[in-house]
Protein backbone atom coordinates (compact mmCIF):
# COMPACT_ATOMS: atom_id res chain seq x y z
CA UNK A 1 0.00 0.00 0.00
CA UNK A 2 1.26 3.46 -0.88
CA UNK A 3 1.39 5.74 2.07
CA UNK A 4 -0.06 9.17 2.30
CA UNK A 5 1.35 11.75 4.65
CA UNK A 6 -0.26 15.05 3.94
CA UNK A 7 -3.34 16.46 2.35
CA UNK A 8 -1.81 18.68 -0.31
CA UNK A 9 0.36 15.96 -1.83
CA UNK A 10 -2.51 13.48 -1.97
CA UNK A 11 -5.19 15.35 -3.89
CA UNK A 12 -5.23 13.02 -6.89
CA UNK A 13 -3.36 10.07 -5.50
CA UNK A 14 -5.84 8.42 -3.21
CA UNK A 15 -7.31 5.29 -4.75
CA UNK A 16 -9.83 4.36 -2.11
CA UNK A 17 -11.77 6.38 0.46
CA UNK A 18 -13.66 4.54 3.16
CA UNK A 19 -16.42 6.53 4.85
CA UNK A 20 -17.63 5.48 8.28
CA UNK A 21 -20.50 7.35 9.96
CA UNK A 22 -20.19 7.08 13.74
CA UNK A 23 -22.78 7.72 16.43
CA UNK A 24 -22.05 6.52 19.97
CA UNK A 25 -19.71 3.72 18.88
CA UNK A 26 -16.92 4.11 21.46
CA UNK A 27 -16.94 0.37 22.15
CA UNK A 28 -17.00 -0.56 18.46
CA UNK A 29 -14.42 1.87 17.02
CA UNK A 30 -11.15 0.19 18.13
CA UNK A 31 -12.47 -3.28 17.17
CA UNK A 32 -13.71 -1.94 13.84
CA UNK A 33 -10.50 -0.14 12.96
CA UNK A 34 -8.33 -3.09 13.89
CA UNK A 35 -10.44 -5.29 11.63
CA UNK A 36 -10.46 -2.78 8.77
CA UNK A 37 -6.71 -2.11 9.03
CA UNK A 38 -5.99 -5.83 8.68
CA UNK A 39 -7.96 -5.95 5.43
CA UNK A 40 -6.47 -2.71 4.09
CA UNK A 41 -2.92 -3.87 4.74
CA UNK A 42 -3.50 -6.68 2.21
CA UNK A 43 -4.34 -4.19 -0.58
CA UNK A 44 -0.82 -3.90 -1.96
CA UNK A 45 -1.07 -1.16 -4.55
CA UNK A 46 -3.74 1.08 -3.08
CA UNK A 47 -3.39 4.33 -1.22
CA UNK A 48 -6.31 4.46 1.14
CA UNK A 49 -7.94 7.03 3.41
CA UNK A 50 -10.43 6.23 6.14
CA UNK A 51 -12.86 9.04 6.93
CA UNK A 52 -14.58 8.76 10.29
CA UNK A 53 -17.52 11.13 10.64
CA UNK A 54 -18.58 11.67 14.23
CA UNK A 55 -22.29 12.42 14.04
CA UNK A 56 -22.60 14.32 17.34
CA UNK A 57 -22.01 11.27 19.57
CA UNK A 58 -22.93 11.71 23.25
CA UNK A 59 -20.20 9.29 24.33
CA UNK A 60 -16.45 9.81 23.80
CA UNK A 61 -16.37 8.40 20.24
CA UNK A 62 -14.59 11.59 19.08
CA UNK A 63 -11.72 11.06 21.55
CA UNK A 64 -11.45 7.42 20.49
CA UNK A 65 -11.24 8.60 16.86
CA UNK A 66 -8.51 11.12 17.69
CA UNK A 67 -6.63 8.38 19.47
CA UNK A 68 -6.87 6.16 16.36
CA UNK A 69 -5.77 9.16 14.31
CA UNK A 70 -2.63 9.51 16.41
CA UNK A 71 -1.69 5.84 16.04
CA UNK A 72 -2.59 5.04 12.45
CA UNK A 73 -1.83 6.80 9.16
CA UNK A 74 -4.32 7.89 6.51
CA UNK A 75 -7.22 8.70 8.79
CA UNK A 76 -9.37 11.80 8.58
CA UNK A 77 -11.69 12.57 11.48
CA UNK A 78 -14.65 14.89 10.95
CA UNK A 79 -16.65 16.11 13.93
CA UNK A 80 -20.16 17.34 13.12
CA UNK A 81 -21.53 20.07 15.38
CA UNK A 82 -24.43 17.84 16.54
CA UNK A 83 -26.30 14.68 15.61
CA UNK A 84 -27.57 15.27 12.04
CA UNK A 85 -28.43 11.61 11.31
CA UNK A 86 -26.62 8.90 9.39
CA UNK A 87 -27.70 10.27 5.99
CA UNK A 88 -26.10 13.68 6.70
CA UNK A 89 -22.97 12.05 8.19
CA UNK A 90 -22.49 9.99 5.03
CA UNK A 91 -22.99 13.17 2.96
CA UNK A 92 -20.22 14.90 4.95
CA UNK A 93 -17.96 11.92 4.22
CA UNK A 94 -18.79 11.94 0.51
CA UNK A 95 -18.11 15.70 0.26
CA UNK A 96 -14.67 15.23 1.85
CA UNK A 97 -13.58 11.99 0.17
CA UNK A 98 -10.74 12.24 -2.34
CA UNK A 99 -10.48 8.64 -3.51
CA UNK A 100 -11.08 7.37 -7.04
CA UNK A 101 -13.37 4.80 -5.45
CA UNK A 102 -15.47 5.38 -2.34
CA UNK A 103 -16.92 2.75 -0.02
CA UNK A 104 -19.54 3.45 2.68
CA UNK A 105 -19.20 1.21 5.75
CA UNK A 106 -21.09 0.99 9.06
CA UNK A 107 -18.92 1.06 12.17
CA UNK A 108 -20.50 -2.05 13.72
CA UNK A 109 -18.90 -4.60 11.32
CA UNK A 110 -22.34 -5.45 9.88
CA UNK A 111 -20.83 -4.47 6.53
CA UNK A 112 -17.83 -6.84 6.55
CA UNK A 113 -14.55 -5.12 5.54
CA UNK A 114 -13.40 -8.55 4.24
CA UNK A 115 -15.53 -7.88 1.15
CA UNK A 116 -13.55 -4.75 0.18
CA UNK A 117 -11.05 -6.66 -2.07
CA UNK A 118 -13.98 -8.19 -4.05
CA UNK A 119 -15.57 -4.75 -4.41
CA UNK A 120 -12.29 -3.29 -5.71
CA UNK A 121 -11.91 -6.16 -8.18
CA UNK A 122 -15.37 -5.38 -9.59
CA UNK A 123 -14.49 -1.66 -9.77
CA UNK A 124 -11.26 -2.43 -11.63
CA UNK A 125 -13.27 -4.44 -14.13
CA UNK A 126 -14.99 -1.16 -15.01
CA UNK A 127 -18.10 -1.07 -12.82
CA UNK A 128 -18.96 2.36 -11.39
CA UNK A 129 -21.24 1.06 -8.66
CA UNK A 130 -20.85 -2.16 -6.67
CA UNK A 131 -24.07 -2.86 -4.75
CA UNK A 132 -23.83 -5.14 -1.74
CA UNK A 133 -27.03 -7.15 -1.51
CA UNK A 134 -28.11 -8.66 1.80
CA UNK A 135 -29.03 -12.26 1.08
CA UNK A 136 -29.73 -12.83 4.79
CA UNK A 137 -29.90 -10.65 7.89
CA UNK A 138 -28.53 -12.47 10.90
CA UNK A 139 -29.65 -11.54 14.41
CA UNK A 140 -32.53 -9.30 13.33
CA UNK A 141 -36.12 -9.88 14.37
CA UNK A 142 -38.51 -11.67 11.96
CA UNK A 143 -40.65 -8.51 11.91
CA UNK A 144 -37.70 -6.27 10.89
CA UNK A 145 -36.64 -8.69 8.12
CA UNK A 146 -40.21 -8.99 6.85
CA UNK A 147 -40.92 -5.24 6.97
CA UNK A 148 -37.60 -4.47 5.21
CA UNK A 149 -38.45 -7.05 2.52
CA UNK A 150 -41.92 -5.53 1.92
CA UNK A 151 -40.61 -1.93 2.12
CA UNK A 152 -37.80 -2.38 -0.46
CA UNK A 153 -40.31 -3.89 -2.91
CA UNK A 154 -42.97 -1.23 -2.28
CA UNK A 155 -40.43 1.57 -2.72
CA UNK A 156 -39.05 0.04 -5.91
CA UNK A 157 -42.63 -0.13 -7.23
CA UNK A 158 -43.43 3.49 -6.32
CA UNK A 159 -40.12 5.11 -7.17
CA UNK A 160 -39.40 6.70 -10.53
CA UNK A 161 -35.69 5.80 -10.09
CA UNK A 162 -34.85 2.06 -10.18
CA UNK A 163 -33.75 1.13 -6.63
CA UNK A 164 -31.91 -2.09 -5.83
CA UNK A 165 -33.83 -4.40 -3.53
CA UNK A 166 -32.14 -5.44 -0.25
CA UNK A 167 -29.16 -3.13 -0.89
CA UNK A 168 -28.38 -0.74 1.96
CA UNK A 169 -25.78 2.04 2.10
CA UNK A 170 -22.89 -0.45 1.88
CA UNK A 171 -21.64 0.08 -1.70
CA UNK A 172 -18.65 1.15 -3.75
CA UNK A 173 -19.02 4.24 -5.94
CA UNK A 174 -16.58 5.49 -8.55
CA UNK A 175 -15.30 9.05 -8.62
CA UNK A 176 -17.64 10.13 -11.42
CA UNK A 177 -20.68 8.79 -9.53
CA UNK A 178 -19.52 10.63 -6.40
CA UNK A 179 -19.16 13.88 -8.38
CA UNK A 180 -22.74 13.46 -9.63
CA UNK A 181 -24.09 12.65 -6.17
CA UNK A 182 -22.46 15.87 -4.89
CA UNK A 183 -24.72 17.78 -7.30
CA UNK A 184 -27.85 16.48 -5.50
CA UNK A 185 -28.23 19.15 -2.85
CA UNK A 186 -31.63 18.17 -1.45
CA UNK A 187 -32.00 18.64 2.33
CA UNK A 188 -34.13 15.63 3.15
CA UNK A 189 -31.71 12.92 2.17
CA UNK A 190 -32.69 9.35 1.57
CA UNK A 191 -29.25 8.00 0.72
CA UNK A 192 -30.34 4.65 -0.73
CA UNK A 193 -32.26 6.63 -3.35
CA UNK A 194 -29.60 9.31 -3.83
CA UNK A 195 -26.84 6.69 -4.30
CA UNK A 196 -28.94 4.88 -6.92
CA UNK A 197 -29.97 8.01 -8.79
CA UNK A 198 -26.91 8.53 -11.07
CA UNK A 199 -27.14 5.03 -12.57
CA UNK A 200 -23.95 4.08 -14.56
CA UNK A 201 -22.53 0.55 -14.85
CA UNK A 202 -23.62 -1.47 -11.85
CA UNK A 203 -22.93 -4.89 -10.44
CA UNK A 204 -24.17 -6.67 -7.34
CA UNK A 205 -22.39 -8.89 -4.82
CA UNK A 206 -24.48 -10.87 -2.33
CA UNK A 207 -23.47 -11.33 1.29
CA UNK A 208 -24.95 -12.50 4.57
CA UNK A 209 -25.29 -9.50 6.87
CA UNK A 210 -23.87 -10.49 10.25
CA UNK A 211 -25.05 -9.32 13.66
CA UNK A 212 -23.75 -6.13 15.23
CA UNK A 213 -20.51 -6.97 17.09
CA UNK A 214 -21.03 -4.62 20.07
CA UNK A 215 -23.32 -1.78 21.11
CA UNK A 216 -26.87 -1.54 19.84
CA UNK A 217 -28.79 -0.29 16.82
CA UNK A 218 -29.36 3.48 16.76
CA UNK A 219 -32.69 3.25 14.95
CA UNK A 220 -35.95 3.05 16.87
CA UNK A 221 -39.08 1.73 15.17
CA UNK A 222 -40.46 5.29 14.80
CA UNK A 223 -37.17 6.49 13.21
CA UNK A 224 -37.30 3.63 10.73
CA UNK A 225 -40.89 4.52 9.83
CA UNK A 226 -39.82 8.18 9.35
CA UNK A 227 -36.87 7.14 7.16
CA UNK A 228 -39.22 4.87 5.19
CA UNK A 229 -41.73 7.69 4.61
CA UNK A 230 -38.91 10.04 3.68
CA UNK A 231 -37.72 7.49 1.07
CA UNK A 232 -41.19 7.28 -0.49
CA UNK A 233 -41.87 11.04 -0.58
CA UNK A 234 -38.33 11.86 -1.78
CA UNK A 235 -38.44 9.48 -4.73
CA UNK A 236 -42.09 9.31 -5.75
CA UNK A 237 -45.15 11.51 -6.21
CA UNK A 238 -47.33 8.45 -6.65
CA UNK A 239 -48.99 8.82 -3.19
CA UNK A 240 -50.41 12.17 -4.41
CA UNK A 241 -51.72 10.50 -7.54
CA UNK A 242 -53.20 7.64 -5.50
CA UNK A 243 -55.14 10.12 -3.33
CA UNK A 244 -56.44 11.87 -6.47
CA UNK A 245 -57.66 8.55 -7.86
CA UNK A 246 -59.18 7.58 -4.51
CA UNK A 247 -61.06 10.90 -4.60
CA UNK A 248 -62.34 10.21 -8.12
CA UNK A 249 -63.43 6.68 -7.17
CA UNK A 250 -65.22 7.77 -3.98
CA UNK A 251 -66.98 10.69 -5.69
CA UNK A 252 -68.17 8.43 -8.53
CA UNK A 253 -69.47 5.82 -6.05
CA UNK A 254 -71.20 8.54 -3.99
CA UNK A 255 -72.86 9.91 -7.14
CA UNK A 256 -74.08 6.41 -8.13
CA UNK A 257 -75.37 5.74 -4.62
CA UNK A 258 -77.16 9.12 -4.59
CA UNK A 259 -78.94 8.26 -7.84
CA UNK A 260 -79.94 4.89 -6.43
CA UNK A 261 -81.48 6.50 -3.31
CA UNK A 262 -83.32 9.07 -5.46
CA UNK A 263 -84.76 6.32 -7.63
CA UNK A 264 -85.81 4.21 -4.63
CA UNK A 265 -87.59 7.18 -3.06
CA UNK A 266 -89.29 8.48 -6.23
CA UNK A 267 -90.18 5.18 -7.90
CA UNK A 268 -90.75 2.78 -4.99
CA UNK A 269 -91.66 5.39 -2.38
CA UNK A 270 -89.22 3.89 0.19
CA UNK A 271 -88.12 6.09 3.09
CA UNK A 272 -84.42 7.09 3.04
CA UNK A 273 -82.32 4.90 5.41
CA UNK A 274 -81.40 6.99 8.38
CA UNK A 275 -78.74 7.94 10.87
CA UNK A 276 -76.32 4.91 10.98
CA UNK A 277 -75.56 4.82 7.25
CA UNK A 278 -75.19 8.64 7.13
CA UNK A 279 -72.72 8.57 10.02
CA UNK A 280 -70.75 5.74 8.50
CA UNK A 281 -70.35 7.50 5.16
CA UNK A 282 -69.50 10.84 6.82
CA UNK A 283 -66.82 9.28 9.00
CA UNK A 284 -65.40 7.32 6.09
CA UNK A 285 -65.18 10.41 3.92
CA UNK A 286 -63.72 12.46 6.79
CA UNK A 287 -61.01 9.80 7.24
CA UNK A 288 -60.16 9.69 3.54
CA UNK A 289 -59.97 13.50 3.39
CA UNK A 290 -57.66 13.73 6.40
CA UNK A 291 -55.45 11.03 4.93
CA UNK A 292 -55.23 12.87 1.62
CA UNK A 293 -54.42 16.14 3.43
CA UNK A 294 -51.75 14.28 5.41
CA UNK A 295 -50.15 12.98 2.20
CA UNK A 296 -50.24 16.49 0.76
CA UNK A 297 -48.74 17.81 4.00
CA UNK A 298 -45.77 15.43 3.71
CA UNK A 299 -44.88 16.97 0.36
CA UNK A 300 -45.56 20.56 1.49
CA UNK A 301 -43.27 19.92 4.49
CA UNK A 302 -40.56 18.82 2.11
CA UNK A 303 -40.96 21.95 -0.04
CA UNK A 304 -40.70 24.03 3.17
CA UNK A 305 -37.47 22.29 4.22
CA UNK A 306 -35.99 22.71 0.74
CA UNK A 307 -37.05 26.38 0.55
CA UNK A 308 -35.18 27.14 3.79
CA UNK A 309 -32.06 25.68 2.14
CA UNK A 310 -30.21 25.11 5.41
CA UNK A 311 -26.89 23.26 5.25
CA UNK A 312 -27.19 19.47 5.45
CA UNK A 313 -24.54 19.30 8.20
CA UNK A 314 -22.05 21.56 10.02
CA UNK A 315 -18.44 20.60 10.65
CA UNK A 316 -17.05 21.62 14.05
CA UNK A 317 -13.54 20.06 13.83
CA UNK A 318 -11.51 18.22 11.25
CA UNK A 319 -8.30 16.31 11.99
CA UNK A 320 -5.98 14.60 9.57
CA UNK A 321 -2.67 13.24 10.76
CA UNK A 322 0.62 13.42 8.93
CA UNK A 323 1.85 10.03 10.06
CA UNK A 324 3.88 8.03 7.62
CA UNK A 325 3.20 4.51 8.71
CA UNK A 326 1.02 1.67 7.71
CA UNK A 327 -2.65 1.18 8.48
CA UNK A 328 -1.74 -1.46 11.01
CA UNK A 329 -0.87 -0.44 14.54
CA UNK A 330 2.59 0.94 15.24
N1 LIG B 1 -25.22 6.32 12.72
C1 LIG B 1 -24.94 7.68 12.55
N2 LIG B 1 -25.87 8.60 12.98
C2 LIG B 1 -27.06 8.25 13.53
C3 LIG B 1 -27.35 6.85 13.66
C4 LIG B 1 -26.41 5.92 13.24
O1 LIG B 1 -23.86 8.05 12.06
O2 LIG B 1 -27.85 9.14 13.90
C5 LIG B 1 -24.20 5.32 12.27
C6 LIG B 1 -23.85 4.25 13.31
O3 LIG B 1 -22.83 4.68 14.18
C7 LIG B 1 -23.39 3.10 12.43
C8 LIG B 1 -24.29 3.25 11.20
O4 LIG B 1 -24.77 4.58 11.21
O5 LIG B 1 -22.04 3.22 12.02
C9 LIG B 1 -25.44 2.27 11.20
O6 LIG B 1 -26.18 2.39 12.41
P1 LIG B 1 -26.88 1.15 13.11
O7 LIG B 1 -25.95 0.00 13.19
O8 LIG B 1 -27.47 1.64 14.39
O9 LIG B 1 -28.05 0.83 12.06
P2 LIG B 1 -28.65 -0.62 11.66
O10 LIG B 1 -27.49 -1.48 11.27
O11 LIG B 1 -29.35 -1.11 12.88
O12 LIG B 1 -29.55 -0.30 10.51
MG1 LIG C 1 -25.83 -1.81 12.30
TrEMBL record:
InterPro entries: Glyco_trans_2-like, Glycosyltransferase_2, Nucleotide-diphossugar_trans. GO terms for cellular component: plasma membrane. Gene3D superfamilies: Spore Coat Polysaccharide Biosynthesis Protein SpsA, Chain A. CDD domains: DPM1_like_bac. Keywords: Cell membrane, Glycosyltransferase, Membrane, Transferase, Transmembrane, Transmembrane helix. The chain crosses the membrane at residues 242-263, 275-300. Pfam families: Glycos_transf_2. This is Glycosyl transferase, group 2 family protein. It comes from Colwellia psychrerythraea (strain 34H / ATCC BAA-681).
Amino acid sequence: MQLVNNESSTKNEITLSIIVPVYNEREMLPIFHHHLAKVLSTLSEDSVEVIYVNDGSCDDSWDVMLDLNSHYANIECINLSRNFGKEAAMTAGIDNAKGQAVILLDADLQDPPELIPDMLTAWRKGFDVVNMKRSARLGESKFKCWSAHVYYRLLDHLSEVPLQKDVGDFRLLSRRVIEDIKKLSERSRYMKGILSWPGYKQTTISFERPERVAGETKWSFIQLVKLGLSGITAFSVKPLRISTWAGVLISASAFGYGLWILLKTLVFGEAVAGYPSMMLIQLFLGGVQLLAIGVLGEYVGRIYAEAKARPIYLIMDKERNTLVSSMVEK
